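Please check this today:
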Amino acid sequence: MQLKTVLQEITHHNDYDLSKISMDELIKEMLCNIGSTDPELRDALIYNAFGKLIQEDYLKVDQWRYIVKTCMDTNHLFLNIGETETDSVFSRSFSSLVLALILEKDSQEFRLSETEVREIIKQSILYLELERDIRGYVKDKGWAHSVAHGADLLAEAVKHPYFDMGLVDDCLKAVQHNLFKRNEEGIPYLDDEEERLVFVIEALLGRGATEDRIASWISEVSTNLNELLNREGTNLVFFRKRGEIVRFFRAVYFRCLFNGNFPIIQQRLLKELKAWHELFYD
C-alpha cells in the first residue's frame, strides 16, 4: 500500500517532490513488484511511473543500467521462461515493456554504450523466441500480453541506431515463430497480438530492410501455413491458425497502404491473400 501511494502521487501529480524519496529504493521496489498480479499496481502504477521517470529524465544513467541489468535477469525477463498459464508471465511481459521504454529514450540520447544496447537487442530477440505463454487479458489479473509486449520491445530494438542489420533474419524468424505459436487448446490470439507483431516488420522496413527480403519472407510464412494444412488437415487448429496468418497479412498490407510505400510487398500480400481465399471460398 505504501508503494501504491507513492506511485499514485508520482503518476497523478506533476508537482510531486521526488526529492522526498530515495529513487534507488523506489526503483528496487518497483522492480520487485513488476510481476504483481494486482493490475493497478503492475500496469497503471509501476509501468506508468517507469514511463514518466525514464521519459522525463528523472533517472541517472547508473539507475538506467541497474534497471536494464535487473530486467534482463532470470527473475524478470526470463523468469520461468517456457511456463504457460502461470503468473510468472507478468514479470516477463512487463520487464520487456520497461526495456522498450529505455531503448526508445536511448535512441534519442545515447546514454547507454553500444555494447549495452546490443545486449538488450540480443535479449529482445531471444525473449520473443522463448516466450510460450500467449495469453492476452487474464481475468482478475489484467494484461499479460507477452507476445504484444515482446513485439513492442523488439520493434524498439530494431529502431535503435545501434541495431545491426545483420540481425534482420533473426528478427523475421522470431516474428514467424510467434505467428505459429499456439496453446494446447489451439485458441488463437485474441487481443491484437498480430497487429503488434506488424510493428516489428514496419521497424525493419524503416531501417532499410529490402522489400524483396520481406516479400520473400511473407511467402515463407504462407509456405509454413500450407505445411500445417498438409499435417493437420482442415481441423480446428489449422482453421484458427489460418485466420491469424490472414489477419497478420491484412495488417501488414494496410500499414504499407496507409504509408503509401512498399508496392512489392503489397503485391505479394495480395497474391497470398487471394490464394488462401480461393482455396477455401471459391
Q: What stands out?
A: Residues 8 and 45 are 7 Å apart (CA to CA). The first strand starts at residue 137 and ends at 138.
